[in-house]
Amino acid sequence: MIRGPVYGNCNCSYACPCQFQVPSTHGFCEAVVGGILDEGRFNDVRLDDLKWVILIAFPGEIADGNGNEQAIIDESATPEQREALLKILHGESTAPGSTIFNVLSSLVAEVKETLYAPVDVEIDVEARQGKINVAGLVESTGSPIPNPFTGGVHGVSISIDEGMEYQHANIGRGSSKATAGLEIELDDSYGQFCVYQLNQDGLVRN
User: Fold this and answer.
1) Cβ-based neighbours of 146, under 8 Å, separated by 6 or more
2) Domain that holds residue 77
3) How many domains does the chain divide into?
């Protein structure tokens, strides 16, 4: 079981079509996603306070497969925690199709070498603010969508009744650059702020 905030930035427009079961904005997918485990466990291994990042890229629509994926786990994790968290991020020991990690991993053709480095992730879901920093490898900043008429925040959210990732997500924008095993550069595109609460059977619903 894991529970904690997650910020993700992909290359789609602000209203990511993937959330509505229609083709992506540009016909391919690239994303930088980071999370903080407020609480987590894998069997007897506690995962509280660990931070993680996933880089993912598909040459076409996600459903067509042939993607590439790379995980980065904070170097503070013990060997047991590293093994446990990597199993979760790769969708292992999980009912088929039950979590976003499992679905993405099932569509990936190549898994890049996992990296262990100092991972800094800051997320405020309600404020639609997020930062991911892995020195020399990943940098991402998320923020609200501005309202051009009022100068304030354009507060948009998505709720999915039968989702595998979240029940409710706040939507903003993000910009990212990754130069790890996958090279990704995103500028002012879709930003998603939510809480993951998942176990081996899928989304834990409130």
Assistant:
1) 152, 153, 154
2) 2-203
3) 1
